[in-house]
Write a structure and sequence with these properties.
The protein is α+β, with helices and mostly antiparallel strands. Helix content is about 30%, strand content about 25%. The relative contact order is 0.14.
């Protein structure tokens, strides 16, 4: 599939999903728990459904894997779309603006490995959209009122030392069962870095690294739809992505992800294991 075409489909689907989400933003939607602290709302389902329909019409024969409604399309599909209709549902339910639509497309090689092709992260309450396609670089569009409106290329930061770095992180919904695994690296990097942020949306954390807002990000226990879009954003912005051991990150297989400006990657990894 031509990457420009894929990106156009992803951008259109993200716009449609964002419209559904914003219809419920600030309305205190009814919340159902999928786990102890894992919420879902009707707007998660509504956004995923509209995105799934648009992608399926535009790309028949592709697989679509969504957080809420699972997989559709042929098992042997050469292309896979990963949809997170509201990354940061907890934030969304509280009226917090840090949530996003995340759409990532991968190509499946003969050995079953997935190669990222395109990704879009749209944060409608922030007025920000980030996108990238393989070999084409990435862009950031700001539509909110005030300075910085318009488009600019995605480019990671030039920060070279942890003591001056802003790091982003998060924790999985099963944090209660994985306390030491999560808290020990957090403590080490809290003492080593200039500052830490926990936004509550993995796709936005990776987008912020790609845009040079943050210098690095790490998190364990994520699903493919959490990171499929952000992965290519960081790579196309000149950054580096790996698992906690420094090996190439593999969707659905790697247990932890580290995305950085590249300059700090080895230093962050030192504190994670």
């Amino acid at each position: 599939m031509e990457t420009g075409q894929a990106l156009s489909v992803a951008l259109a689907a993200a716009e449609a999903g964002a419209a559904e989400i914003m219809a419920g933003y600030g309305r205190k939607p009814e919340v159902r728990l999928k786990g102890v602290i894992d919420p879902v709302t009707e707007y998660d389902f509504r956004a995923e459904q509209v995105m799934r329909r648009l992608i399926t019409r535009a790309c028949p024969g592709h697989a679509v894997i969504g957080e809420e409604e699972g997989r559709s399309g042929p098992e042997e599909a050469a292309y896979r779309w990963y949809l997170d209709p509201i990354d940061g549902t907890t934030n969304f339910t509280r009226g917090h603006p840090f949530f996003a639509v995340s759409i990532g497309l991968t190509a499946v090689d003969r050995d079953g490995r997935e190669r990222p092709l395109a990704g879009v992260v749209q944060a409608p309450a922030l007025g920000e959209t980030f996108w990238a396609a393989a070999g084409r670089g990435g862009r950031r569009r700001v539509t909110r009122f005030g300075p910085g409106q318009g488009e600019q290329p995605l480019a990671v930061s030039g920060t070279e030392t942890l003591r001056r770095a802003m790091l982003n992180t998060g924790y999985p919904y099963d944090v209660l069962e994985r306390g030491d695994e999560i808290l020990n690296p957090l403590g080490r990097l809290l003492l080593a870095a200039g500052s830490l942020r926990q936004a509550g949306a993995a796709s936005l954390d990776l987008a912020f690294v790609a845009a040079g807002i943050a210098d690095a990000y790490w998190e364990a226990g994520l699903k493919p739809w959490d990171v499929a879009a952000g992965l290519i954003l960081v790579l196309e912005a000149g950054g580096q992505v790996s698992d906690y051991l420094g090996q190439p990150y593999r969707l659905g297989q790697s247990q932890g992800i580290v995305g950085s400006n590249g300059l700090l990657h080895a230093r962050v990894l030192e504190h994670l294991t």
